[in-house]
Design goal:
homodimer; 224 residues; alpha/beta; Rossmann fold; DNA polymerase, domain 1; 2 domains; two-stranded antiparallel ribbon; (S)-2-haloacid dehalogenase activity (chains A, B)
């Protein structure tokens, strides 16, 4: 077994499937669900980066709501307030990826402290975790709210170390987002990049320690 | 005529057409040019934001090259070094938008100092401007190189004011990039957003002073 003192996981896209909002989008706008979920996620990410760079932090729910409004306007879909609420709330009910639960069980059983580090607010993170019945898994839920800036700002990677109570070189950082995996690597963490789509790694001057196709293979690697 | 002491223009996408690299991309990879140019630009932008947030600045040519490598890998297109050079150099030979030259002539004739403020390096900006024969237009060419961080970091908007020698409220900021127009507005500039595609404005907590469909209509508004 690898000698990590803890494992921190990214939430959106890594443990939980951001494309799981496509279903309700498709109910609201038949035939548009997949395109809408994709643009919504793209703009959500962009707005976290832009807000952070502009030094104009707002919480993740606000960014998600703003990204939804842009997405509907860009796709020329009418968006009433009630519908905006229903759709945005879906981000509080994301489904875990199929490989998430079993991998976390195995790592937890091995006695490794597990945590989430996310751009989500405390409320969002807690809601997503509790809604999916995964509260048992995590020792720490770490939110961008505490530093008022989103990943990949260095403050987020400092926060993980502080909250885990161990030097970063002893904490495995797990993310399916190439840019997040890059930033964590550059910040000094050993990193496992979850490459579910078998795509290329972002070209940002970093290489992950290891890349696996899913969380199951990541757990295998940690436990072997 | 509006009483601006100067006008600063964004370069990529505002004065010059970033889609003008699609032609050479299509020669290199027939049928793939448009998709490639689009993803390349998207990743180029993302990498400027991510590099800035990670506090890992590299110059714009490096970001452009990195984004090209990711794009070809993602689209499963082989990329040899010679081809990478040819394609990346195309970003030094961008075509002005059809409405650029006439609008700049009219504003210049009215005696208004004109400038470019760009994420490009000094070398990139000078090359693009000279290659298109537009050197006559600009009093200042302002580069992110001088602050070692890209837009929309506040340092870029401070730099424009400093280089123009006037308080920002007297300088018109012109950009076709909604996120750049947003950041300039939030930073305190009067902003004209060039909305060539008649799309929605980014939802980042700002509104431009005015939006026009092209640079000609912008010049009309300034000169009226």
């Amino acid at each position: 077994m690898k000698n990590f003192r803890g494992i921190v996981f990214d939430l959106y896209g890594t443990l939980y499937n951001v494309q799981s909002v496509a279903g309700i989008c498709d109910q609201a706008y038949p035939g548009k669900g997949a395109a809408m979920a994709q643009l919504w996620r793209q703009k959500q990410l962009e707005y976290t980066w832009l807000r952070s760079l502009m030094e104009r932090y707002v919480n993740f729910e606000t960014v998600t709501d703003d990204a939804l409004r842009f997405t509907c306007a860009a796709l020329e879909l009418p968006l009433e307030e009630d519908m905006a609420r229903v759709l945005a709330d879906q981000y509080l009910r994301l489904e875990p990826h199929p490989d998430t639960t079993d991998a976390l069980h195995r790592l937890k059983d091995a006695g490794i402290p597990l945590a989430i580090i996310s751009n989500g607010s405390h409320k969002s993170i807690a809601h997503v975790v509790n809604h999916s019945g995964m509260g048992w898994a995590f020792d720490e839920l770490i939110s961008a709210e505490d530093v008022q800036v989103f990943k990949p700002h260095p403050k987020m990677y400092e926060l993980a170390e502080r909250r885990m109570g161990h030097a970063r070189e002893h904490i495995l950082y797990v993310s399916a987002n190439g840019w997040d995996a890059s930033a964590a690597s550059l910040a000094g963490y050993p990193v496992c990049w979850i490459n579910r789509n078998l795509g290329p790694f972002d070209v940002l001057g970093a290489t992950p320690m290891v890349a696996t196709e899913d969380l199951g293979a990541m757990a295998d690697w940690v436990l072997e």
